[in-house]
Design brief:
Distance between the termini: 78 Å
Shape: globular
CATH architecture of the largest domain: 3-Layer(aba) Sandwich
Helix content: 40-55%
Largest sheet: 5 strands, parallel
Number of helices: 19
Structural class: alpha/beta
Strand content: 5-15%
Number of domains: 2
Strand order of the largest sheet: 9-8-10-14-15
Amino acid sequence: MTGTAERLGPRLLALGAGALWAYTCVVFLYQERVAGVGFGAALAGGTLALGCAGIAFAASRPAVRRALTPGRMLNIGVALLSATGAILIADTAAGVLANRRAGAEVADPGRSSDPHLWHGELFPRQYYPTSRNFFLYKPDVRLSADTYGEYYTAPMQRSPTLRDSVLGLHHLAYHIGPDGLRELEPLTGSRVFALGDSYALGYSTDEGKTWTDRLGATLGEPVYNMGLSSTGPRPQLELLAYMLEHNRDSMTVRDLLWMIYEGNDLENSYAELRPATESPGGGSGALLDGTLPGWLAELPGRIKAQSAVRRLLRGELVLGRRGRSSSAGGVRRIDGVTLATPLYHSPRWGYMLFNPDDVERATKPLAYVQGHPNRPRLDRTFRDMRALAERQGFRVTVILAPTAARLYGADFEGFPTPSSEPWFLHHVGDLARSVGFEVVDLSQLMRPAAARELLYYRDDHHWNERGNEVAAQLIAEALRARLPAPGTGPSR
C-alpha cells in the first residue's frame, strides 16, 4: 500500500487539483471579463494550461512531498476528484430540474391543434451581431395577427371563467425596421431614444399604441424604440454602445429614456459577452459542426451555461421550489383546467393572471436587493452608462416601471403581502440620481390611474393599451420642462 501511495499520490493530487482548476477556468474565466481583461478561448485556455502545469510542478516538488505524505496526497486527490464530480452531477441535476419546470410551465398538449395565437408565437426572430451580450431582431420583417396574452394555453378555452373573464383576443402587429429594432423612424431624424426590455418594446401592444409611439406624438418628435424583450440593464447598455459606434455618422442621441422594470431587471443576466451556448456561426466553426472537434469546442460553453454554482452566485438559480410562496392563495385549477400561472380574484377587478416571479419579488425585503449578487453589477452598469453619456453628450432619464403585482396585488383575494416599499426601484432611483440621471417613478405616478382602471392585461403581465397611454402621459409631463422644443437642442 505504501508503494502504491508513493507512486499514485502525487499524480492523483495533481489530477484532482487540475480537474477543479479546469472547471473553475471554464465556468468563471471563459468568456468573462476580469479586472478589465476579456478571457476569450485563447486566453482562458492558456490560463488553464499554465495553471495545470503549475499544479503538476508543485506536486512533484520535494517541499510538497515533505509537507504531505503520499497517503495524504492520495486522499486529497480523491477528495478533489470527488468534489469536481459532485459539482458536475449537481449541474446536471439542476439542468434537468430547470427543464422539467420549464416543460411543466409551457406544456400545452392542445397547441398543435389550436388555431389561436399567443404573443410569443408572433415574436420576431433575433440574432447576435457581435460577441457582446446583446441581440437585435432580424430586420425588415412585419408580423400581424390577433393574439392572446403570454399566459394563454389552448386548454384555457375549455374554461367558461377564463374565456369570459380573463382571455383577451386583440390585434398585435410588429414591424421590425432596417436597424433590427421595433422602429421605422430613421436614426437620422431621431434625438430621443427609449431603451429597456419588453416594457420599452411594447411586447403585447399594437403598433401606434405603445407608450413610445404615444410619447412621440405628444412631444412632437419621434421617440426611437430600442426596447429588447427579456433583457436587463447590462445588455441594454451593450446595445446602445454598439448602435452609437455602428452608426456614428447617422445617430445623435440628445435624450435617453432608460426604462427599468421592477419584475426581473435585478435578476437578468449582467454578462458582458454573449451566452456561451451560442455558436458564432459561419467560418471554420461551421465546418466543424457535428464533428468530434466541433463538439469538444462547444463543451466549455455548455459546461459554463449549466454550472449551478455560477448561476446561483449570479442570482439566476433559485433554491427550493420556484414560485412556492408567490402562488399562495392563487387558483391553479378552475373549471377543470390546470393553470401554469396562478389566477387571482378581486371583488373590484374580477379575475386576473399574475406572473409568479413578479408576485414573489414584490414581497422581497430591502435585504434581498442589498445582498443580491447582481446588485454590484447593476451599480457598475449605471456608472458605465454615465461614462458613455458623458462621452457622447446625451442626457439620461431613468423611468421606473412597476409590476402589476405592485399596483394591484392588495386588491386581490389571498394575494401575498407586498413589501412596504418597492425596494429595487428605490435602489435604482437612488443609484440613478447619484450618477446625475433624472428619474421618473411610475410606481408612484401611476397609482391614481391604477386606482380607477386596470392598466395591465388580464392574461399578460404587460401594460394594456390604456396602461401604455397613461405611462406616455406621465412621462411626457415629467419631460416637458426639460426637453427642448422639437428641432432645437445640441447637435454634433
